[in-house]
Amino acid sequence: MKDINETDLADHSIHGDPEPVFLYSRNNEYIPRIAAVHDLCGYGKCSLGVAIPVLSAAGCDVCPVPTGLFSSHTAFPGWYMHDTTAILKDYLAAWSGIDVQIDAVYSGFLGAPEQVDIIRSLYETYPDAIKFVDPVMADHGKVYPTYTPELCDAMASLARDADVLTPNLTEAAIILGEPIGDEWEGADITDEEAERLVHALLDLGAKNVVLKGIQRQDETVMRNFVGGMDTNDIIQVENEFVPYMLHGTGDVYASCVLAGIMAGRSLVESVAFAGNFVHDAMIVSAKQPNFMDRGVSFELLLGKVSDLL
Predict the structure, then answer these.
(1) At residue 272, does pLDDT exceed 60?
(2) Is 280 helix (H, G, I), strand (E, B) or coil?
(3) 185 contacts 140 by C-beta, under 8 angstroms
(4) What number of other Cβ atoms are within 10 A of residue 52's Cβ?
(5) How far apart are CA 159 and CA 131, in angstroms?
(6) Whole-number Å distance between alpha carbons of 211 and 284
(7) What is the C-alpha to C-alpha distance for residues 191 and 223, in angstroms, rounded to an integer?
């Protein structure tokens, strides 16, 4: 395994990573269009509330496909959810009628198993679009409250189709049908176990995998493991660990990875950028009132995303 820290990686990838993976060739005169299949959350920054500004800052035209409407993120008591599954078929059929073209399909939090079929219909309609799957369904050893076993199974099946798959440790276990160990609540696993999981996810069908958020006890770094079907190397990308949890950081991370890809950067460089960006956003967040509830504050840093161009 090649172990590259984030600072070296940024320079190294520009001059040629070990077998770099580029998924998109950017023409700066063309604005790529992304179908963002996520929920819309009224309070507590996550999902579409993150994907739209981050990807727009990367010079992308973001076309929302709302999988659900939430009053707030689910860490708050008394949240309200409206499942939008019933409207999505007609919603996307209307796109076909006006010749909408899509360069990437970016899916995250889903509201019902049937929404996986909706995403696959997008894959069929736009066969050349990048399939970016952030399998948002669990973290720290626990499945999110709106996710049924059927929805978890549907998400696991979608993961097999991904050009880029970005699970955390708990989501990787669900996709692979493996038990969630007690030690996984803190994402404390060895390099060898992380590599095994990446290879197993690739064997299922995902073309590139980013296993994110591995943080070992008493360590001050967050580790992310990147592997692809076209290379035997698994590259480890580190960034400084921030010792508190904020809702929405996973959505910021995945959106930044895709932002890097759509800016024409390599997958590994995009992962390094995403880790740095989330770290910096968490530092900014801690300066805001009630920051543990309101979600990750990334707005002041969007210029860094634009600099990818």
Answers:
(1) yes
(2) helix
(3) yes
(4) 19
(5) 10
(6) 25
(7) 9
Residue type, 246: L
What end-to-end distance do the CA atoms of the chain give, in Å?
A: 30
- Token pair 């989501």 is at which residue? 171
Answer yes or no: are the C-beta atoms of 36 and 64 closer than 8 Å.
yes
CA 99-103-104 angle, to 5 degrees, is: 120
Tokens (6 digits) for 181: 């160990």
Q: Give me the DSSP letters along 175-239.
A: HHT----GGGGGT---HHHHHHHHHHHHHHT-SEEEEEEE--TT--EEEEEEEETT-S-EEEEEE
Residue 227's φ and ψ, nearest 5 degrees, are -140, 155
What is residue 159's predicted lDDT score, i.e. its pLDDT? 97
Residues in the chain: 309
Residue pLDDT, tens place only, 126-148: 999 999 999 999 988 889 888 99
> What is the crossing angle of helices 114-125 and 85-97, to 10°?
10
- Which string of DSSP letters, residue by residue, matches 126-144? STTSEEEE---SEETTEE-
Instruction: Measure the CA–CA gap between 30 and 59, rounded to whole angstroms.
Output: 9
CB 265, CB 13: distance < 8 Å: yes
